[in-house]
Design brief:
337 residues, Alpha-Beta Plaits, 2 domains, 8-stranded parallel β-sheet, 4-stranded antiparallel β-sheet, 14 strands
Length: 337
């Protein structure tokens, strides 16, 4: 249920309404919008007589939230959520440009790519240290050593860091090095992991699952928000379809759909979305034109020798050209890089 308090309700009275809801066994989340306190009450809402609640002091209205993803919805939280990471306000008019290798492979590789993507205009460096690979014989990442390298490389060029966490046991360790915790497509419905990052004090980049509907994706975000972390960035990275000419089918429909349903920022990963280097730039341009809040792109200076995802990694010069085009598209949309 969504409980709207009257404008100008004193804090003490708002606190009283919240504690009465809690006493009925409900979990209460609060957001303030245009001078109005909005409370979302979750749990067994039949425990209360809502006609009675409507008559509590300072209660203006009590209504159902008509979607299953309550805290993620615009019904609860009408204004866009903006998540500040380093120099970037993700979800604002500034586009979030995140770029870097699929995997951190070593010091020289990480520093070379960090320098190039920073020069091109990226503000967040990506790089996996714990890699969820289809084959157990593929490169699995450098682990904590990789995170140390990634942090040093990013710091050297003024970049923030996003890196994937694949295990509940690693969350606090990855959070020591990364500014954003990435939850990969394969883990979108790993509920233990969703809850663990829900307790972390770092923003979470939640990728859409390989075959997840938009509603399932938003429900996964709901798990994180209901655990206490409202700093979630959604990332569309392509879904599995019958098409074989691309690695995945990048679902750009998801952008306007999610922006209407949710207040959370949504970015696009055209690298995994296409799987093919020369398809990345067109889909990146389309994603921004469609209203995405940013891009997560794989860049490698020597993709033929990359230990993962070389075929979809842009050369640094291609990335720089793309950022130039994104700047132009952003201007048309009243946004900026
Ligand atoms: C990645 O970002 O390198 C990755 C493994 O992505 P996804 O989870 O989308 O496959
Ligand atoms: Mn990758």
């Amino acid at each position: 249920m969504l409980i709207l308090l009257k404008k100008g309700t004193p804090e003490a009275s708002a606190g009283l309404v919240a504690s009465r809801l809690r006493m009925a066994g409900l979990a209460v989340h609060r957001t303030d919008h245009q001078g109005q306190v909005r409370l979302a009450a979750m749990g067994d809402t039949t425990a209360l007589d809502w006609d009675e609640v409507r008559n509590w002091p300072d209660v203006e209205a009590a209504q159902k939230i008509p979607v299953p993803f309550k805290l993620v919805s615009r019904t609860f939280h009408p204004q866009d959520t903006v998540i500040t990471v380093g120099r970037c306000a993700i979800g604002s008019d500034q586009l979030a440009l995140m770029a870097g290798p699929c995997s951190i492979e070593g010091e020289a590789q990480a520093f070379e790519i960090a320098e190039q993507v920073a020069k091109a205009g990226a503000t967040v460096m990506r790089g996996g240290a714990f890699k969820p690979r289809t084959s157990p014989y593929s490169f699995q990442g450098l682990g904590e050593e990789g995170l140390k390298i990634l942090r040093r490389a990013a710091d050297a060029f003024g970049l923030a860091v996003v890196s994937e966490v694949i295990d509940t046991q690693q969350v606090s360790m990855v959070a020591r090095y990364a500014d954003i915790l990435q939850l990969g497509a394969r883990n979108m419905q790993n509920y233990a992991l969703l809850h663990e990052v829900g307790h972390a004090e770092k923003p979470v980049l939640l990728k859409r699952g390989l075959a997840a509907t938009i509603e399932e994706w938003l429900m996964s975000a709901e798990h994180i928000l209901s655990s206490g972390n409202s700093q979630v960035i959604l990332c569309e990275r392509g879904i599995r379809t019958f098409e074989t000419y691309t690695r995945n089918t990048l679902d750009l429909n998801a952008i306007p759909v999610v922006r209407e349903l949710s207040h959370l920022p949504v970015i696009v990963d055209p690298s995994h979305g296409t799987g093919i280097r020369n398809k990345v730039a067109p889909m990146a341009r389309a994603a921004i034109a469609a209203g995405a809040d940013g891009l997560l792109i794989e860049v490698h200076h020597d993709p033929d020798h990359a230990l993962s995802d070389g075929a979809q990694s842009l050369y640094p010069a291609q990335y720089a050209d793309l950022v130039g085009q994104i700047r132009t598209i952003a201007t048309v949309l009243g946004r900026r890089v």
